[in-house]
Design brief:
2 copies of one chain form a homodimer. Helix content of chain A is 41%, strand content 15%. By secondary structure, the first copy, chain A, is an alpha/beta fold. Chain A has one domain (7-301): Aldolase class I (TIM Barrel), CATH 3.20.20. In chain A, strands 1-2-3-4-5-6-7-8 form an 8-stranded parallel β-barrel, surrounded by 6 helices. In chain A, helix 2 packs antiparallel against helix 11 (276-290), helix 7 runs parallel beside helix 8 and helix 8 packs parallel to helix 9. The interface between A and B is medium-sized, with 32 and 32 residues. Chains A, B: GO terms for molecular function: hydroxymethylglutaryl-CoA lyase activity; metal ion binding.
């Protein structure tokens, strides 16, 4: 049996940290990113362009980006929730600076959650994200899109697969770099993941890569990653140690842990380019900085 | 898509508690078991017949068993590591008492771990367990067998699938009630689970049911349960809250949590007869008794 390698998108610096109550210094964020590059992460979500009043932890987004190592083998993602965010992303590249390499757009598959999280209904999100992708492309920067709350909404409960697939179809028309489905609140199960990614795969017909974003809130995160892999997904978001959560989603605990994802994949014969031991060492270093153990089970067992 | 229902074997009272540093009173154990019956568990591992010097928590095995509610719809399992254990199990039924309904035999798929855990090499374990199953049967009590460390050994590392399958073949000849594969130290991955249970299924040819026993030490427990389900396993060990571990396996943390298993199954359209809300309530009651939060993610998110 041959196995396709996977690609890790290390979201620790953004999704992982945005929920931290204490502000992490720009310098510490940059040290974390350098160490992540050191353990083999090659694509990293480094910041989000949100209003500092909403997510104070991301107030230094431009400073973090200005301090990123200029490595040819790295891809830096900046998250944007609206056109203003895209403009901030583009601005990081002005004056010949490297800036970010990719804009991550986010569209919530629920009217209620979308309105609470970024002031948009689904229809408004589709219109806004269409503009965002076009705008980014016009400025020569790659853009990808994440459909969040794709497996359930903290306010509305069930999210219909048709809703998610309709959004995906509208967005696919803009030819983004990739389309991700995110279980933002960690309610999804492997059966649901197989079903929804199976349908997305069919819809995209191999023309646009799929990415998966899971949270481990109910213990299903790693099972969902495996189900997604089986459904053809080869790009996975994860955060070092399982840091993270969403400040606007009640009880949405951490992302799946990078170490746990890599352990499962590596011991299934699936390569990721990540040095697991080095990731665990980075976890222990950062856990000491935060003064608490991180959720990753693999790092605890080490 | 139709889904086969699963059967939960609630191992909290034995595998879950044996590692607890403080001795739980017989009365509390019985209250825990009654509450587990209350949330819908119908098969329970209630005690093990080991020497109290080795596992002090199980010193009251006979007292727990004497106090079990005499319910026709319940199956009580007593674990035995050798013939002496089987004799103790049989003795619980003497004098017209209900006692236990089933003997759980255990055979370690590693010479080193087997010797440390129960003083047996694999070959000695095969001989002993053959006798144990025959002995139980002769006394009119059902016996099933668990092949432990089937996915890896804390001392030897890799455990070869052929080793596990050879043990299974030897044991299948004794026609036990079921054969379980246990990832005692929580190192297994879904790819490994699919492979090994797939091969076991082939070997058993549907004549003997399969059971799966996973620990979540490296975060793969729920993913492994899903892979096992896909490979045809319908009986799953789990412990309330994810209590548990093995005192003789270094860093072998808890069993997969009953709540997390049931959540995944229930939200995949797979019935288990367990009332998830009631299980979570029982978790919170017992967590308060122990004075600490239990690992189950679902119970934390509730």
């Amino acid at each position: 049996m041959t196995h396709n390698a996977i690609e890790l998108v290390e979201v620790g610096p953004r999704d992982g940290l945005q929920n931290e109550p204490d502000i992490i210094s720009t310098r510490s964020k940059l040290e974390l990113i350098e160490r992540m590059l050191g353990f083999g992460a090659r694509r990293l979500e480094v910041a989000s362009f949100v209003h500092p009043a909403r997510v104070p932890q991301m107030a230094d987004a431009e400073d973090v980006i200005a301090g990123l190592p200029d490595r040819a083998d790295a891809t830096y993602i900046g998250l944007a929730l609206n056109k203003r965010g895209v403009m901030r992303g583009i601005a990081t590249r002005e004056g010949g600076k490297r800036g970010i390499d990719q804009i991550g757009c986010v569209l919530v598959a629920s009217d209620t959650f979308g309105q609470k999280n970024q002031g948009q209904t689904i229809a408004e999100g589709i219109a806004e994200n269409r503009d965002m992708i076009r705008f980014a492309k016009a400025e020569g920067i790659r853009a990808q899109i994440t459909i969040s709350a794709a497996f359930g909404c903290p306010f509305e409960g069930e999210v219909k697969p048709e809703t998610v697939l309709q959004i995906a179809e509208e967005m696919a028309a803009e030819a983004p770099e990739e389309i991700a489905l995110a279980d933002t609140i960690g309610v999804g199960t492997p059966a649901q993941v197989s079903d929804l990614f199976g349908k997305l795969r069919e819809l995209l017909g191999g023309k646009i890569p799929m990415r998966a974003h899971f949270h481990n809130t109910r213990g299903t995160g790693i099972a969902n990653a495996w189900a997604a892999y089986q459904a053809g997904v080869l790009i996975f978001d994860a955060s070092l140690g399982g840091l993270g959560g969403c400040p606007f989603a009640p009880k949405a605990t951490g992302n799946i842990a990078t170490e746990d994802l890599i352990y499962m994949m590596e011991h299934s014969g699936i390569d990721s380019g990540v040095d697991l031991e080095a990731a665990i060492t980075t976890n222990h270093w950062f856990a000491e900085k935060l003064g608490r153990q991180l959720p990753s089970m693999v790092a605890r067992a080490a």
